[in-house]
Amino acid sequence: MKTISIKDIEGIRIGNAQNFTSGTGCTVILSETGMCAGLDVRGGGPASRESELLKPLAAAQSIHAVLLGGGSAFGLDAAGGVMQFLEEKGIGFDVGVTKVPLVCQSDIFDLTVADAHVRPNKEMGYEACKGAYADNYQDGNFGVGTGATVGKFRGMDYCMKSGIGSYAVQIGELKVGAIVAVNALGDIYDHHSGRIVAGMLNEERSAFADTAKLLYSSYEVHDNKFVGNTTIGAIITNARFDKSQLSKIAGMAHNGYARSIRPVHTSADGDSIYALSVGNIAADCDMVGTLAADVMSEAILSAVKNAESAYGYLAYKDLKFI
């Protein structure tokens, strides 16, 4: 097994677009020839578009793009720009009079980071596609990771800056990678050491407060729990799978979330994972699903370690007690 770049997986293009001043952005994963896709949603509060396309009973057997965006439900407008870009390039499902691109989208909540009234829109979605063709993808405070934060159980005053991360490996001809925007209610753990690397800070910002420990301090019902969260990502592989198999792989990849985020899959998160097949390599579904969880944990760690302090929120790189 060797580590490769997420961009070394053939058949996809990945691009970022962002507004650094307003603290939001989006990241697009494009396939000109179409890609089979599955989806598994575990969080209780997703913001999403065209998720029904990915159910096994839906007629469409492939899609042309997945967009990961900020702006919560407002940001779902950005998919229109992706559709415009792909239609202009003649990419989509042929309906005779034009080609209709099939675009799925999931969004994080980043409205409380900088400017709540600026969100990804049609123009930003279009720019992300241009970025994909310019090969501009990078980890950190870019694209959907621009406004990502973690450790928000007590609100924004004690959270940390996160971002978008990726990780990919190759075994023989098989390639499996993950890309993820880490915007969790909970803390982020290094799955190798079991130690917290980002999350809720204490009053003095001199140590981690440990969200799970605080959560266990009381079982009082919280009727208005802070819901500005959601970790969204995708597994990308050159192995050949159908929608049912990809949905299973996406579900297994959530084990990577569970190893690296605590608490995870809460009612205040919209945790979602897509699984995308962009090749024809024959591979075992369970093997790829197991590997998907591993690369997802690595991508989560990459998102935290490549983030930069911004908007008044500390990032991993600037912590003095790590």
Automatic annotation (TrEMBL):
Transmembrane segments: none annotated. CDD domains: nylC_like. One of its GO terms (molecular function) is aminopeptidase activity. Signal peptide: none annotated. It comes from the Bacteria. It holds the Pfam family Peptidase_S58. PANTHER family: BLR5678 PROTEIN (PTHR36512:SF3), D-AMINOPEPTIDASE (PTHR36512). Belongs to the peptidase S58 family. This is Peptidase S58 family protein.
